[in-house]
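Work Package 3 committed the consortium to producing structural models of liganded targets before the mid-term review. Because experimental data for this complex are still outstanding, the team generated a predictive model from sequence and the ligand definition alone, so that downstream docking and mutagenesis planning could proceed in parallel. The input record is reproduced below exactly as it was submitted to the modelling pipeline, together with the SMILES string for fe (ii) ion.
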Amino acid sequence: MAVYGVLGDIHGNREALEAVLARLDAEGVTRLLCVGDVVGYNADADACAEALRSRGAIVIAGNHDLIGTGRLDFERCSNKAMHALKRTRRSLARATADYLCELPAHHALEEHVLLTHGGVRDVQQYMTKPQHILENAAYLRTDFPGRRVCFFGHTHEQKVFEVDGDRVAEVPASGTVRLDPRREYFVNPGSVDASRKRAHKLAEFAVFDSGASTVRFEQTPYDDSATESKAAAGGFRIDRWRDRLYDVQRRLVGPRHIS
Ligand SMILES: [Fe+2]
Ligand SMILES: [Fe+2]
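The resulting structure, written out as tokens with the ligand in place, is given here.
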């Protein structure tokens, strides 16, 4: 049993990640769990991967980590994501690519905890609705028996779904949430990267105390203007014309064949 900082959807945002790590350092939280999407959207993929690697974080692969290293195609990506991931593919250091390629799809820890990025069986599934949670609770029981607290990412929103048999209830993801040992939970710690959010550019994370069976949801400001200027200078932001060009390419050759 331990206290963990739980992070996800960092997306190459060094400023946001450093702000979160500073908060965790101040609390003395040294164990880190990351539910994937280390890279994509922003310019500092290498620095983010190195920060996690050097701290011995437990990290699983998100769809952006798979696409950024060429192990998944652009079929289910928006043009904005595809554009940034094409830049990521070209700019990743070899050591970062090697690190990302070794990340597993899931990680089980303690007796009852699992990390997944999207759905339990589909890394690109957005688990946003109770029906998605019910479907994935069934996969969890089949594929990972005994695991009843599942941390996930991909939807970029702090969330807690509580499962009691075939009923799903959403618990407000704010402050400290106590996890009932008789229930199953799907918990999203939020997105470290806030570059895609229109307002409130706050890096989100959670602190999981497995001994006390609690999850505390946190947010912290970071230097968003630095992130944006590096992303723009590095060519990670799509313009209107490129967006249209990708639409045409998708129609003509299909997203699988855009490289
Ligand atoms: Fe993401
Ligand atoms: Fe994702």
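Reviewers should note the following from the model. Residues 37, 62-64, 117, 154 surround fe (ii) ion (ligand 2) (CB under 6 Å). These observations will guide the Year 2 experiments.
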